[in-house]
Amino acid sequence: MRLRVKEVNLSAGHVLIAILSKEDAKHLDVNANDRIDINGTKVIVNVSSKGVSKGTIGLFEESLKTLKLKPNEFVNVKTSAKPRGIEYIEKKLRGKKLEKEEIERIIQEVVKNELNEAEIAYFISGCYTRGMSDEEIIYLTNAMVKSGKILNTKNKKVLDKHCVGGVPGNRTSMIIAPIVAAAGFVMPKTSTRSITSPSGTADTMETLADVSLTKEKIEKVIKKTNACLVWGGALDLANADQPIIRVERFLMLDIQPILLSSILSKKKSVNAQYVIVDIPIGKTAKIKSKRTANVLKRRFIKIGKLLGMKIKVVITDGSQPVGNGIGPVLEAIDVLNVLRGDGPKDLMDKSIFLATELLDLAGVKHARSKVLNILNSGKAYEKMKEIIKAQGKNVHRLKVGKYFKIIQASKSGIISEIDNERLSKLARILGSPEDKGAGIYLSVKKGYKVKKQQPIFTMYAESKKKLEFALEELDERYPMKIV
Amino acid sequence: MRLRVKEVNLSAGHVLIAILSKEDAKHLDVNANDRIDINGTKVIVNVSSKGVSKGTIGLFEESLKTLKLKPNEFVNVKTSAKPRGIEYIEKKLRGKKLEKEEIERIIQEVVKNELNEAEIAYFISGCYTRGMSDEEIIYLTNAMVKSGKILNTKNKKVLDKHCVGGVPGNRTSMIIAPIVAAAGFVMPKTSTRSITSPSGTADTMETLADVSLTKEKIEKVIKKTNACLVWGGALDLANADQPIIRVERFLMLDIQPILLSSILSKKKSVNAQYVIVDIPIGKTAKIKSKRTANVLKRRFIKIGKLLGMKIKVVITDGSQPVGNGIGPVLEAIDVLNVLRGDGPKDLMDKSIFLATELLDLAGVKHARSKVLNILNSGKAYEKMKEIIKAQGKNVHRLKVGKYFKIIQASKSGIISEIDNERLSKLARILGSPEDKGAGIYLSVKKGYKVKKQQPIFTMYAESKKKLEFALEELDERYPMKIV
User: What's the pLDDT at A90?
Assistant: First the structure.
């Protein structure tokens, strides 16, 4: 059937969708969510009584690009079988183990946007409720690696670090990477931008340097400096990861096999050989129980080994933010202070600990004194400046928001609890991470003794309105407890 | 935040979606698939870089209707927590039993279109992989009943019949309903239209009478004739059923708890007290194994009892079509012939068997001779004419498609297999169910001895093109096997 292409002036998210008139859909014998074939690509059908008339096919801008079509062009449209991956998703839901080829097929179809969100949800459900064997996770990880590019690190010794997240601040990567690089190893650190947190490592690094680098540029930066601190999303590493994580986020469940594959595939895509994984646990962190952390730890190590990576997992305190700053600029200030030998003690201690464990894992003798030496001699700070220069210094200035409010203790006592989630929410309302200078700077941590009216934290915003919104939120949900 | 309403000239399917500009989404701190609150209703966010500018909110026609809004009106938009049902969906996925209130909440949110398709898929996955207890199915069934209207049957003895489907032809309901009504009982038969089959009972009945009747009109028809044969979709029975079934159909799995609740809720919504359930099994039928059929049978009876319904389940032969006609008009011809005491023997025998079982279940003595008497005396045929008159005679004429092709046996032998799925596909290509006169008329059934070039079936179409398409399909996939 030949149809005229009509551009639909909307974005459809990521899935490939074609809008057909009721008449043409009937003629093709397709219903909503069936598939049609356009030039060999399977596209999901949407049937509309409006906007698209008989003889035309509505396509969103992204779909036009993917399908290499132009408005008013004529295309041949055929009915098409459902993606074969659906069959394997059903198999997983029935509780059967999937073969390598089956998982590869699913991942290929995810990358080609041939599966809709409900179908991806079925896949995630199958992985979650039926669990996945180590082999299946390896197949999934390798399929994800295959779905994207692989960083060329020229056979150097590559070290990496990952934190499963959920703790505000906690910008240890920006301290560890320069240390590792200064020690003579390669650390190609790719990070995420924040989705629900006040800042991701990529957001914070962006206050100092460009982070949206191409693969080629990153390889140059690494060649020059031994390290990078970039946004992983600008690369095409483990592409299949993104649509899956997007649908996974509809729930608050930790889907372990997905978590493992997602992290390990990104490490494999940069050729990491030695990886330290940080699992902070705490009531308001991502991982809440020691038991879950331990299960995850064992699997990380075992599957990592099968994938050719030496992994060490450390379970750390996630009961409060690490460092004082929350929000891109405020966190960057903490990081630079630590690299200059100053800065929040908890952030410095944790960074030294993780860097030591990582070098030790890579076979470095007397790792701790080496790390301390690199940090105290200023070599790490120098390395960071090199990295910033190589990535391209950013126009962003380290300027905190001009509207601020110092929050004082409502009574004398001891800080008994700090709520990560509430602090994150507050920082986001203040404007983080888009408003780089917005966020929170903590003056106290858990266990601190405070006097009534002593400043406990400061809220920064780049607009008066956002500061007001944050103050309203603060009235409703207070992020600290004084007893 | 106040935004101006913009109508988006497309249909969004069923889910309530609002399209925000990137800027406004940032300001509200919402991402795609988060929820916003518009006049107390939760609406799913879609963020678009095109089509919707800052300060406006894009809404599809259906959403405008649901939210009672007009283009260019200003609305207050607030961020909103995710629907609470998601928490219970997670609970089910974790393998926990759901409480009555939790299932009710999920169903309410399904009906209000607050859950997106992926979230519904997660719910279905939970029900499938973790299973549901009898209590949970009862909660689900009652929640579905509550989600729609209930037919008023004035405390009469209500009998009903359901077939789980998958066998072409098989229009027994149109024979059983008049028999039951003539026997003095009420049978308010609501049926589906075809989605993937060549014809549903509603499609076939539509060749004889109106089937899209309002609840009030149906109640009048029943008062007058004791029965009806209508399309259930025009009523609002068990509303939550539709979105769930839609998402379930993305897979080919039989999700038993959903199947049970879906069927039982519709029976409860018409106040059925005695129900016969027909489960045809066969290699190319919906239910393929005796084991699955037996599990389903036990649960139907048990749960039906707990819901106050007396249910009898019969497992029948689903290895080939029942009757000779496949397609609305061709099936209607079979039905009328059986009611006049003629017609395909298998359709007649099965209808007599099911009607007998149903009357017997309702306590009728000598049910079989009563059924035979009603049929042979012409009372059933007279009752059918009454029902057609009461529902409103339709303009459709019982005219088969004017293009036809008689298919002959390619060799002499015995018909050893008839493939339901291939016949269905063929009939749909010929134009069923939209082209009422299109379809297939079988001249032979399994076990028949045929000579080479003896006619085995006839294909009818209302357009020459469709007949040609069907002939091409026939070349590729032949629906009968001769040995």
Answer: 96
Q: How many CB atoms lie within 10 A of CB B342?
A: 11
Inform me whether the C-beta atom of residue B116 falls under 8 Å from chain A C-beta atoms.
yes
Q: B304 with B279, same domain?
A: yes
Residues A346, A409, single domain; the answer is no
Q: Which pLDDT value is given to residue B203? A: 95
In-domain check, residue B141: no
Of B275, B268, B271, residue with least CA distance to B176: B275
Q: Which residues on chain B are in Cβ contact (under 8 Å) with A247? A: 118
Query: Among the three residues B356, B391, B426, which one is the final residue of a domain in this structure?
Result: B391
| Residue B447: count of CB within 10 angstroms of its CB | 9
Pick from B340, B338, B316: nearest CA to B325: B338
Q: In the 8-state DSSP scheme, what is residue A21?
A: E
B81: chain A residues, CB-CB within 8 Å: none
Q: Which of A241, A254, A349, A475 is catalytic?
A: A254
The rounded percent of chain A whose pLDDT value lies above 70 is: 98
Q: Which residues of A touch B22 (CB under 8 A)?
A: none
pLDDT of residue A334: 97
Residues 6+ apart with CB under 8 A from B103: B88, B136, B139, B140, B143
Better-scored residue on pLDDT, A395 or A211: A211
| CA–CA separation, A370 and A375 (whole Å) | 9
Q: Is the pTM of this model over 0.90?
A: no
Q: Which residues face A89 on adjacent strands?
A: none
Question: Does B398 map to a domain?
Answer: no
For residue A302, give how far its alpha carbon lies from the nearest alpha carbon of chain B (Å).
Answer: 25
Q: Which of residues 423-462 of A touch B (CB under 8 A)?
A: 428-429, 434
Whether A254 is catalytic: yes
Residues A252, B119: C-beta atoms closer than 8 Å: no
pLDDT at position B13, please? 61
Mutate to test the interface with B, among A11, A17, A424 (most CBs of B within 10 A): A11
Residue where a domain stops, chosen among B61, B80, B99 = B80
By annotation, the residues of B acting in catalysis are 254
Domain containing residue B411: CATH number? 3.90.1170.30
Q: Is B463 on the interface with A (CB under 8 A)?
A: no
Q: Which pLDDT belongs to residue B445?
A: 96
Whose CA is closest to B91, among B137, B132, B58, B62? Answer: B132
Phi, psi angle pair for A105, to nearest 5°: -60, -45
Same domain, B376 and B306: yes
Host domain of residue A90? 85-131
Checking if the pLDDT of A380 tops 90, the result is yes
The Cα–Cα gap between A400 and A338 comes to: 18
Contacts of A13 in chain B (CB under 8 A): 32, 46
- How far does chain B reach from its first CA to its final CA, in angstroms? 73
Are A308 and A365 found together in one domain?
Answer: yes
- Are the beta carbons of B126 and A121 separated by less than 8 Å? no
CB contact B71 to A (< 8 Å): no
Q: Does A306 touch chain B (CB under 8 A)?
A: no
pLDDT, mean of each 10-residue run, chain B (483 residues): 85 75 85 85 82 88 86 90 91 97 96 90 97 96 93 88 93 98 97 87 95 94 96 83 88 89 94 97 91 95 96 97 97 97 96 98 97 97 97 82 96 96 92 93 96 96 92 92 95
B90 and A8 within 8 Å at the Cβ level: the answer is no
